[in-house]
Amino acid sequence: MKLTHIQIGFLISLTLLVCTTGFSYLIFNQTLEKNLFSDEDEKIEPSASRSGSVSVINFDPLPFSLGIGSIVSLIAMASWIGSSRIKVDAVSLMLDNGLGDMTLNDLEIVKHMMSSEKFTVPELTGKTNFSRQTVWRQVNKMIEEELVKETGEKKLPKSGRGKPSKVFRFIGPTTIQ
């Protein structure tokens, strides 16, 4: 039986709850015993309040220990779940897809593809300052690996003159699940 990411996080969180509660309970108990009984023979007497009645301090460390354990457990679970949605960087994506032979220029182009909802080759050329051929080569490589697809849209250049450019969309993973 293989546990899912969330199940592992839950088990870690539950373990932290039990351990933190137990340790804090022991620490509270030891601290209270040392403060209330400085010597075995000498016990601290209850003090009288202004109204004349005697008040006894009755402190149960269990609720405080459970509170501390719960907080630590919730923080651990939130961190675990949050870490499962880490953004994929261009290097990890390329290595996972068997594209480890890419250059730094290629990785820069891929990074811009991943951060754009839609893009054109001229837009990537402008953002990366690489040649049109370098960008085209990388876009085609990503299409072959099924990480980029053509949207079917066309976009006119910003100048308003010239041939419309094809619009592409990055369809590869952007988060680790």
From TrEMBL:
Residues annotated as transmembrane: 7-28, 62-82
Keywords, comma-separated and alphabetical: Membrane, Transmembrane, Transmembrane helix
InterPro entries listed in its UniProt record: WH-like_DNA-bd_sf, WH_DNA-bd_sf
Keyword Protease applies: no
Protein name in UniProt: Helix-turn-helix type 11 domain-containing protein
Organism field: candidate division MSBL1 archaeon SCGC-AAA259I07
